[in-house]
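Subject: complex prediction, re-run

Hi both,

The earlier run crashed halfway through, so I resubmitted it with identical inputs.
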Amino acid sequence: MSILVTGGAGYIGSHTVKQLLQENYEVIVLDNFSSGREELLIGGEIIRGDLRNKKTLQEVFASYKIDAVIHFASLIQVGESYQNPQKYYQHNLLTSLNLLEVMLAHHVRKFIFSSSAAVYGEPQKIPIPEDHPLVPTNPYGQTKLFVEIILKDYARAYGLKFISLRYFNAAGADPEGKLGEMHEPETHLIPNILLTLLGQKKEFYLFGTDFPTPDGTAIRDYIHVTDLATAHVLAVKKLLAGEIQTDFINLGTTKGYSVLEVIREAEKITGLKLNYQRHPRRPGDVPILLASRERARQKLGWELHYSDLETIIQTAWAWHQKVATSLHR
Ligand code: UFG
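This time it finished cleanly. Structure:
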């Protein structure tokens, strides 16, 4: 079976490509390398192209026999999406519309979508179930919700089969040390802590110490990127086997850690002390986000193997140290 992976040179995409190759799928990666990295590609057919260009897509679907599509390619910075919503609607929404149009024209009807906990907005219930109200609080989350709405309509009208996977906080790195997080700029908590400890970032800012949580810092549900990748492989199998027609599934652990707990664990694992500055909350940051994971367990048979905080930070630390050494060579 042959899978087209858009954004396959990105963080979660590259970990998924690795597992698809291990399971003997043929993999075609389509990436414009705006944030994807050559270093994160370990196999498969690589096509450099932009999803805003329908001609590129038509060529890809005319050249390869494709059984299913996993659509990772997306911009991901919540803050930037406030400043420049047009960029987000063009990159996240227009690209998805193009991809769906061209794949359906070529009779490809199986689609896995990278969605986000951002579709829920302020949680009204913790842990968050998939049928929670969808009220995104930023343009990034809106783009993910719009695509989900489009998927439902296309399923009804054109027979599209899809699974929309709503990620909570992706973190960690490939346990074999081949892949990891390389965002530019980096905005996520765990890499920012580790890059500061490595001396690659000058300062670490702790955003928000007055949240209504036990230690005043925000609580998040950190999920190991290898477990996330496994969920994609399981989801593809379910679609290809016809066992799922359409679904929306959270990918998280249901267990949360505060920013201070993450800092303490990182200090324990690295043996280093983090100096940080307290800053006000970032706009839009909510106090607590935790996923209900019942549906993922029931529908995908998804189990977690790497998503304890210690393994997440250990694998991320090994990766950042490796990247730091190779950069200084
Ligand atoms: N944080 C800091 N300092 C930093 C980075 C983060 O204190 O340098 C704090 C944040 O304020 C937040 C927590 O650490 O309280 C986690 O922040 P991340 O940026 O790592 O993750 P978010 O929960 O903000 O965002 C993630 C994804 C988004 C997605 C969102 C909601 O990165 O793409 O979850 O699902 F939209």
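The CA atoms of residues 7 and 44 lie 13 Å apart.

- K.
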